[in-house]
Structure formats: structure tokens, C-alpha cells
């Protein structure tokens, strides 16, 4: 039996406008009024001109915008209601993506435990690992795939660190090679997303960690929706913060806001508050 409960109909109505329409199905207990504006799905799952998947950026943070007490410290922020929401979001996406540090430190299962979810409903775990840190063996995502409780991970890496012989292939996982770089010499997000789309991934739920989140907040053209769980707590100084790099106006060079949110919707889930929005392009 799943340790995750169903979302109620009101919670589902709030989420629908910010979700892709390709993955997951409406279950019998999910009664959603299609006449409600909040029940209308996103206009399209993908942009065929760009050839990119629908991207949902989602994470849990404290009131001081921290996602962990300290670097390398696994920190639980979501209550049971927002935990259920997270697994519902996983149910509605083709893939879950995290960075290599999150995969190594948090050791997430990267599977979906929403009630009645089958193996076919499971999202594809994707780990962005340009430096070849994540080996898989002994990790929860690897074990769940081997036991048939999740799909096998794909590891996004570069041709420089690609391992032709890997235990990842034993569970039908794979490597996704992306050699495009951004202006800072890091693996390029548009290159990652375009490659995933070519491989059949039409929607991606990006869960962290902070480096991944901050880099994508600076690329609003790549993000279709943002869903943030805000826990009623302060983690304090020295934590790991979601805070994108400073931004300056192109003409004056003056400091401006790093990111804006459009169409915000706030909903209380138990003791947590969830913010659904779109990044201003």
C-alpha cells in the first residue's frame, strides 16, 4: 500500500492550469470541474517550433528561501499534504530531473508513489552529471529500478565523462550525451532539454538542487510552470538558498529583479502553502 494519499478535488483544480497534458491520466476519484478556469490545462504541452519539453520547476523551501539546513544536509520541509502533491506531479510528468549533488546527497528514489500508479505511470529519473559523480550502484533510484518499482535512470553527461561499460545498462538505464555549453562553460540547459525531447520526453519535472533551480530561474524561456512548497519555518543562516544570480539592466547596468512570477496562485496544503505561477519571460 502506498504511503501517499490522494489529493482532494480542490487541490487538483488549483494545479491543473500549471501542468502538462501528456503524462498521467485522470483517475476515477479526481473529480475536476472543467468549467473552472483553474481546471483548464496549460495551452500546450510542448512548443513544436522549439522542440522542447514542458518544464515544471518545483521545490520546497523555508520562509527564508532555504532548501537545506547546510550543504550536504538532507532536510525535510514538506508535510504529508505537499508530499502527496509532489507524487501527483511526478505522476503527471514523463520525467523527474535532479542534479548530481542532489542525487548523491539526498539519495532520492525518483519514483512515483501516488495511489494506484503502475510501472507504466512511473516517470523516468534523469540525473544531470557532467562530471561523472553518480555511479548508481547502492543508490535508491538504482535499487527501485532493479526491483521493478521505478524506471531505470538516465544520466545526462558529456562525451568526456561517458562510460561505455556501466552497471547502469544492467537495469536498462542509459546515458544521454550533451556536449553543448553555456557562456559559463557549464552544460547547456537548452541542449539538455532538446536532447530529452528527441528521446521522447515531452514533460520534465525539475526538483533540484539549488544550483539547478537557480540556473533555470535565470532561463525563464525554458520554464513553463513553477510550483513552490513554502514550509512555515525558518532554517536560518548558513543554509542552502534558492537565490538566482544578480541581474542588471542591459542599457543602464543597474541592478534589477532577477526573476518575476506571472499568474500566481496560492493554495494552503495542510500547514504548508503552495505557490503556482509562471516565470515572466
Automatic annotation (TrEMBL):
It catalyses: 2,5-diamino-6-(1-D-ribitylamino)pyrimidin-4(3H)-one 5'-phosphate + NADP(+) = 2,5-diamino-6-(1-D-ribosylamino)pyrimidin-4(3H)-one 5'-phosphate + NADPH + H(+); 2,5-diamino-6-(1-D-ribitylamino)pyrimidin-4(3H)-one 5'-phosphate + NAD(+) = 2,5-diamino-6-(1-D-ribosylamino)pyrimidin-4(3H)-one 5'-phosphate + NADH + H(+). GO terms for molecular function: 5-amino-6-(5-phosphoribosylamino)uracil reductase activity. Pfam families: RibD_C. Pathway: Cofactor biosynthesis; riboflavin biosynthesis. Keywords: NADP, Oxidoreductase, Riboflavin biosynthesis. Catalyzes an early step in riboflavin biosynthesis, the NADPH-dependent reduction of the ribose side chain of 2,5-diamino-6-ribosylamino-4(3H)-pyrimidinone 5'-phosphate, yielding 2,5-diamino-6-ribitylamino-4(3H)-pyrimidinone 5'-phosphate. This is 2,5-diamino-6-ribosylamino-4(3H)-pyrimidinone 5'-phosphate reductase. It comes from Cercospora berteroae.
Amino acid at each position: 500500500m502506498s504511503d501517499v494519499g490522494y489529493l482532494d478535488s480542490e487541490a487538483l483544480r488549483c494545479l491543473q492550469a500549471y501542468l502538462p497534458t501528456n503524462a498521467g491520466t485522470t483517475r476515477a476519484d479526481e473529480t475536476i470541474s472543467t468549467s473552472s478556469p483553474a481546471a483548464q490545462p496549460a495551452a500546450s504541452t510542448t512548443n513544436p517550433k522549439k522542440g522542447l519539453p514542458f518544464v515544471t520547476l518545483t521545490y520546497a523551501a523555508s520562509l527564508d528561501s532555504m532548501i537545506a539546513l547546510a550543504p550536504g544536509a538532507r532536510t525535510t520541509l514538506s508535510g504529508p499534504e505537499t508530499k502527496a502533491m509532489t507524487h501527483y506531479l511526478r505522476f503527471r510528468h514523463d520525467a523527474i530531473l535532479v542534479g548530481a549533488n542532489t542525487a548523491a546527497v539526498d539519495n532520492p528514489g525518483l519514483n512515483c508513489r501516488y495511489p494506484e500508479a503502475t510501472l507504466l505511470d512511473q516517470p523516468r529519473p534523469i540525473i544531470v552529471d557532467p562530471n561523472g559523480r553518480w555511479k548508481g550502484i547502492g543508490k535508491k533510484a538504482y535499487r527501485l529500478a532493479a526491483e521493478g518499482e521505478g524506471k531505470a535512470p538516465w544520466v545526462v553527461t558529456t562525451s568526456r565523462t561517458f562510460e561505455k561499460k556501466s552497471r547502469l545498462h544492467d537495469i536498462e538505464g542509459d546515458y544521454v550525451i550533451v556536449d553543448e555549453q553555456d557562456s559559463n562553460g557549464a552544460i547547456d540547459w537548452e541542449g539538455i532539454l532538446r536532447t530529452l525531447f528527441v528521446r521522447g520526453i515531452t514533460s520534465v519535472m525539475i526538483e533540484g538542487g539549488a544550483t539547478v533551480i537557480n540556473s533555470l530561474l535565470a532561463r525563464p524561456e525554458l520554464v513553463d510552470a513553477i510550483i513552490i512548497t513554502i514550509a512555515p519555518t525558518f532554517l536560518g543562516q548558513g543554509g542552502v538558498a534558492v537565490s538566482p544570480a544578480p541581474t542588471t539592466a542591459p542599457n543602464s547596468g543597474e541592478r534589477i529583479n532577477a526573476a518575476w512570477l506571472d499568474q500566481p496562485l496560492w493554495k494552503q496544503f495542510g500547514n504548508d502553502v503552495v505557490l503556482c505561477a509562471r516565470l515572466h519571460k
